Amino acid sequence: MSLHHAHRFNSDNYSGIHPQVAAAIADANAGHAAGYGDDPWTRHLEAVVADHFGAAAAAFPVLTGTGANVVALGAILPRWGSVVTAASSHLNVDENAAPERLLGVKLLTVPTPDGKLRPADLDVYAGDRGDPHRAQPLAISIAQPTELGTAYSLGELRELCSRAHELGMAVHMDGARLANAAVALGASLRQMTTDAGVDVLSLGATKNGGMVGECVVILHADAGRGTEFVRKYTGQLASKMRFVSAQLVALFGTELWRSNAANANARAAQLRRGIERVIDAHPDAGIRLTQRSDTNAVFVVLPARIREPLRARFGFYDWDARGGEVRLMCSFDTSEQIVDEFTAALAAAAGD
């Protein structure tokens, strides 16, 4: 029996490994090499990271996205620090309180309609500074793009980072899908991070053609202290790190990161256009788009009579089960054909 399954829209984590990344892993699997990052692949990665983010940027490969966020926050926060983040952020909703459990830091959440923090949102907690009865707001964590698929503009990033620094807060960026945001904005990785004022970055690979592994990037010398120790005590120091680094080099040492993200974004745009055509043709079917599709996600309300047959065939997750809102994610390997098949099935269901 074949273990291969049809394309699913549940998550870009469902996709396989890009062939060039798989080849890079195979190439790294030749002979012996020093462990824990003292290897040629990790040294190459350090040069790649410096090329993208600036000469002062330092790379710390880790195993998971949650691990990257924990290590990054641990590098910029004392035990009495807290993190201001959007209530809908992955950090708050989908990481099983990892920052609280592993670092002992508190998350201070702000409700946002589109997943994006605004400078005024930071003022909600600014008055707590210096009060020993309150967790100290010493960092913010933003995602680019957000958990809702929306992307900060370069101007928004600069303004937000500037306000955070004025308030004495460091800036962490969850860049699990940073490549998708870069393609959407037509921007470089550096423009969205170092140049905008971000202090520490969780750079994603798994959602964009990698197998396993992400990278914490300390963007300037004053941002992260003791990152190597935080990485070890949080269980994120890989012994055979060359296999993590080889993947990151395959993606970011070439333009593969960009082409993979470009396909995912393009297929999401195609999917959204198809859903819009169905809505226009069947305005009373109860189908409604709920968020902008800046990157590779489409959020849409589907009535149960339409939703469940489609879910069985194509796969997707509920976002708001009570309201019927679902999330459709496109990946580096999503094809035009599968998007067309989905929208044709949606149209047929809407017309029944």
TrEMBL record:
Family per record: Belongs to the threonine aldolase family.
Keyword Manganese: no
Keyword Disulfide bond: no
Taxon lineage: Bacteria, Bacillati, Actinomycetota, Actinomycetes, Micrococcales
Single GO MF descriptor: lyase activity
Needed cofactors: pyridoxal 5'-phosphate
Protein name, entry field: L-threonine aldolase
Span of domain Aromatic amino acid beta-eliminating lyase/threonine aldolase: 9-300
Transmembrane segments: none
GO BP terms in the entry: amino acid metabolic process
Pfam families linked: Beta_elim_lyase (PF01212)
InterPro entries membership: ArAA_b-elim_lyase/Thr_aldolase (IPR001597), PyrdxlP-dep_Trfase (IPR015424), PyrdxlP-dep_Trfase_major (IPR015421), PyrdxlP-dep_Trfase_small (IPR015422)
Record's keyword terms, sorted: Pyridoxal phosphate
